[in-house]
Amino acid sequence: MAAMAGKPGSWGGLALRVGQAFFAAASVGVMFSSLGFASYTAFCYLIASMGLQTMWSFGLACLDGYAIKFNKNIATPILLSLFVVGDWVTAILSFAAASSSAGVVILFQKDVLFCRRYPQLPCGRFELATAFAFLSWALSATSALIMFWLLAPF
Amino acid sequence: MAAMAGKPGSWGGLALRVGQAFFAAASVGVMFSSLGFASYTAFCYLIASMGLQTMWSFGLACLDGYAIKFNKNIATPILLSLFVVGDWVTAILSFAAASSSAGVVILFQKDVLFCRRYPQLPCGRFELATAFAFLSWALSATSALIMFWLLAPF
Fold it and tell me: Residue of A50, A123, A131, B117 with fewest CB within 10 Å of its CB?
């Protein structure tokens, strides 16, 4: 169990964290550069949630890097409890943000046809930001499950 | 660990399942009785996902009732693996459905003001169905976490 791929302080864990932070930052960047995103609550919430995910994952990536460099064990029960709570909270918020943005994007494209009626609306960018958010969530959920699994035997 | 509240075949487990099935069925009922829901993809998806949740939870409620009545142990590793997969799939689908509906409802009410411009749109019902979906998801997520926790030591 202790040799599980992706545990904190391992190369797998570092890769997961870097991936989460990268996709979350990409989602924020793409959404922020889309004209008129601020008129839609779901897209503002996506930026807030992905911003939080970026900070959390970047912080843990730094911690993983430190643990690898100085060969420290950071998979202690107290730290794991902290990681598991943080991971679950950020993963749930990210999924909610990605799903609600996806709901709004599909509405714009298929139901009320805003994308066709208002060609100035950057629907492609909204879609791309949502896709990045789902990728970030997938990696974040993987981390959250690994943390929960590592914590269960304690 | 084996005496954990909410495990399959206990009164707690039965109560969780009945609650999930009740709120999911209520969500389907309220949404189905809302005029014009079929024009919006997110609301159709909510009905599909909550329908699945109702069937799954109702089936497991029957199984829990059977186990309580005949005093059987259904918390075996094989059955738990089955429950954990089913619970996680339904919980994730329910959360995605509830979040995307919430995204669309907030858009209608605050961003594009459809609720004010088209008073025939039953925004109150859309809201109520979404709230029921979130309640059903909360109970479903509780079950999923309990199953995962029970399965972890095996």
Answer: B117
